[in-house]
Amino acid sequence: MMTRTLILALSLTAAAAPALAAETGNRAVEVRIDDLNLTRTADRERLDTRLKSAARSLCYTGLRGAAENARQSACLSDVLARVEPQTKQAIVRAQNDTQLALLMISAAR
Fold this sequence. Notes:
3 helices; 51% helix; 109 residues; alpha+beta; two-stranded parallel sheet; two-stranded antiparallel sheet; elongated
């Protein structure tokens, strides 16, 4: 059976404070998945780790304090919730012999 490789860009926007979003604009991070076999549990766990790392990099501002911690936590939850349907789609495609090359997530910051 032939395996096809596709590139899928997934754009996700996480809600952030409008002033901060205007100040920094949108950022995006590519999450490479072409080296993963998403039909395997271990590789799905690697994808989850990569997505969490990408979400942290998008949501991190370097600021401190309780309000900022709450904002970052909400941002992480939002980004990961928004990427979940696309992640499931990538897994289904892998099970149907179509390997995606990357996922792209972005957050308005």
